[in-house]
Amino acid sequence: MNIIWTRSLVSLALLAALSAIVGAIFGVRIALVFAVVMLVVQGFFSTFHTQRLWRLLDAPVYGEVPSALGVWGEIYYRLHKLAKRWHAQVRQVEQQHSRFIQAIQASPNGVAMLDDHDQIEWCNAIAETHFGLDAKRDLRQHITHLVRQPEFVRYLNSHHYEEMLVMRGMGANRQHTLSVQVFPYGENRKLILTQDITELERTDSMRRDFVANVSHELKTPLTVLSGFLETMRELPLDEADRARYLEMMDQQASRMQNIVRDLLTLANLEGDMRPPGDGLLDMRAVMRHLEDDANSLSGGRHRIIFRADESLTVAGAETEIVSALANLVTNAIRYTPDGGTIDVAWHRVQDRAVFSVRDSGLGIPAEHIPRLTERFYRVDRSRSRDTGGTGLGLAIVKHVLQRHHAELDVKSEEGRGSTFIVRFPASRTAARKSIAA
Ligand code: ADP
């Protein structure tokens, strides 16, 4: 038996006992009147509290517990306990919901939820920017009224969502490329995931260009080489012609070798995540080595001047730095016509070591300068080839300098010459006496 039954039976028993006592003292009639009056009072009491409970259930005020005697007090108390439990559960669900929303907002991808009529139910900030939406203003709008690109409308209506759609972004994101995929869920609802793949597309197209360039660069000497081979096989050649053909074949083979060598150097530099080391270079020996190489490449066709501050040195990977500096000197000679001047200097500017190569050569038109360090970028393709260039030299220079936190600055005037300046950071610049230390 529960508490309500017990309490009701106890009050009935009390009423009966009181009525019996009144009956014994004042007679049966008075006892009956007493009992009726008590029942009416009880009825009013119950109606009052039923009314109060009704109002409470209609407009609950959390935390306010009405007080009452007997069973009603118990009912109010239990209702209060129930409300408290529910309140705690609702708060827990609300917190989970808000954490869930925060997590989706933090996602780098766009998320939009559509109802069963393809109306926007919710979307995160990224989806807003991708589609040029306003989550508050556009709520409950049909998505194709706002994202009108025909390919998107076709995709949404196709009901085939195994593949993702690649499309242009909207609003401020017009220049971006998006990948969009729909995932149906629940009762005819849809989840749309969007991703900005502009960068991915760019690197992908760079990779494609690179493969095409490498193939092209290797194909040219290979075609020439096989042409010579065929000629030699099919034509009876005298000794002089034979030697000439072999010489030309050798040139093409070494051109291919140079390309492969530079590609491997570049791949090693790009793949090497280790810092380049901080041994101090013997710059006196390095400058002498560069000067000897420059003179033998020029073969006396240029005036070559080397000036070095011998008290100055730099910390880094010797082979890398020497190959980068040698590249700049070699380029200066290759792109300077006979009789020109090449001026190489190693000196300190403020607290930084600076290597500069100035030539009086062909010069570079301004619009080409920002692209010189791209792989296979050449201002004049035929001149680069004629002088044995691979188009990878400055790309290698850029990587070596990046690894040493050094900068490359190019100044040039078409027809008058160029200056390539390398500035090492103060942290890698040292005085020569440190070598001895
Ligand atoms: P390449 O093997 O073709 O010389 P690089 O990467 O070393 O390749 O140089 C890229 C291009 O920059 C060259 O093809 C050339 O057009 C230009 N260039 C580099 N150095 C000079 C220079 N000192 N004077 C004029 N043009 C230069």
Query: So what's the oligomer here?
Result: single chain
Order of helices and strands: HHHEEHHHEEEHHHEEHEEHHEEEH
Give me the Rg, rounded: 44 Å
CATH class of the largest domain: Alpha Beta
Q: What is the approximate shape? A: elongated
DSSP summary, beta strand count: 12
Catalytic activity: ATP + protein L-histidine = ADP + protein N-phospho-L-histidine
InterPro entries: BphY/WalK/GraS-like (IPR050351), HATPase_C_sf (IPR036890), HATPase_dom (IPR003594), His_kinase_dom (IPR005467), HisK_dim/P_dom (IPR003661), HisK_dim/P_sf (IPR036097), PAS (IPR000014), PAS-like_dom_sf (IPR035965)
Subcellular location: Cell inner membrane
Membrane topology: Multi-pass membrane protein
General description of the model:
- The chain has four domains: 2-102, no CATH class; 107-196, Beta-Lactamase (2-Layer Sandwich); 203-271, Signal transduction histidine kinase, dimerisation/phosphotransfer (DHp) domain (Helix Hairpins), CATH 1.10.287; 283-431, Histidine kinase-like ATPase, C-terminal domain (Heat Shock Protein 90).
- A hairpin with an 8-residue loop joins β3 (165-168) and β4 (177-185).
- The model has no long low-confidence stretch (mean pLDDT 91).
- It has helices at 3-26, 28-58, 70-106, 125-131, 143-146, 150-158, 198-234, 239-271, 283-298, 318-334, 381-386, 393-403, 433-436, and strands at residues 110-114, 120-123, 165-168, 177-185, 189-196, 303-308, 312-314, 341-349, 352-359, 407-413, 417-423, 429-431.
- The strands form three sheets. The protein has a five-stranded antiparallel sheet with strand order 2-1-5-4-3, with helices on both faces. Strands 6-8-9-11-10 form a five-stranded mixed sheet, with helices on one face. Strands 7-12 form a two-stranded antiparallel ribbon.
- By secondary structure, the protein is of the alpha+beta class.
- α7 packs antiparallel against α8 (239-271).
- It is 54% helix and 17% strand.
- The chain has 13 helices and twelve strands.
- Bound molecules: adenosine-5'-diphosphate.
- Adenosine-5'-diphosphate is lined by residues 331-332, 335, 359, 361-362, 364, 372, 377-380, 384, 389-395, 418.
